[in-house]
Input
Amino acid sequence: MSPRTCARCLYTEAHPLHLVLDSEFVCSGCRVHEEKDSIDWSERWRRLESLVGEFRTRVSGHYDCIVPVSGARDSHFIVHVVKHRLGLNPLLVSYNRHYNTDLGIRNLANLRMAFDVDLLENTVQPQSAKAVTRAALQAIGSMHWHTLAGQTAWPVQVAVRMGIPLIVWGVHQGVDQVGMYSHFDEIEMSRRYRKEHDLMGWEIDDLAAADPRLDALNLSPWRYPDAGDIARIGIRGIYLSNYLRWDTKAQHESMIETYGYETRAASRTFDAYNDVDCHHYSGIHDVIRFRKHGYAKVLDHACREIRLRRMTREAGAALVAEHMNRPAPDGALLAEWLGMDLPDILGSADAHRNPAAYSGGVPIQPQPPGKDAVEAARLPQVEPDCSFRITPTRAPGQRDDAYVLIGKGWFDPEDTQ
Output
């Protein structure tokens, strides 16, 4: 049976995070998103202040919490909330994904400078990152697995080593996208969710068992700490999206105005804010995901903007159709880094196609909702402008078409050359 399509947004039942449709053909992600309009966010903020108060060290020079960051996503906003609104002293931690853009490196430097905070980065030996990526492509058809594993393990590793029990994350994908949990559950970071969803069911030792060539490598950067160590420190990983009405577009625009966050156009989506630090996330990584699951990142962005009432369902569908088949010019860069041919990389994705989205290598056409269901589920558009700003670059004339493994951790705001 073909998967059905939500009558409000554009997601289908083939979504890899397993959303469901109710009797009105509205998906679980849209229903949980409705909670944002009914929650008393002032009360939630007071609850957050009370929660983090338990972790405040009150000792000069000591860190109150850990904040995982990158050169993009909502990092500036999260640190702004943690430091300036909650008054905490955070230690920022970052896992080096290796696919860095120069713009992303500049944003990360700007983050450190704008907030006057310490940043601890983990840069894995490149040959190890490449070997793990090749193994993940073979085993599960993912070129992004090493990043997902590293950026979810490193903050917890640092928390254990330094005895810092509070980790503050941004948004919970399972809540915000597909309604896997409710905001009322106040879900926290867990080993189980990380493995089953972030890591697609594979830990690093599972990958090593499938590819013995990894045995010779130091695999510790991708290992989640032992449960006993986590319990000994009392580590909790909370999500700000449980306590703030999450709106990544509005948050980024505030950070552009306040702290000079840089943006740039993406090759396969209209969102110019979220993944500017990575050459591949909205490029060849998105092509790989499309070949596995039958949908592209632009669909996530359109569904988000429909739910936030900045875009009609029809406008979102037009943007998806416009972007989802665009080429990814960065594929050759990944192939060169991995020492693989691009057809072999794409073939790895094809070997792991989602049977809910593909049959015999051919995409399964989802069932569209009826017109009556669409009209009944429609949200009124309250913000007519859904444009994304492209900011002036701090490096005019500089090409940004190669990886920057390690870049400057600072810049002179007066020097734009």
About this structure: Residues 145-162 form the longest helix (18 residues).
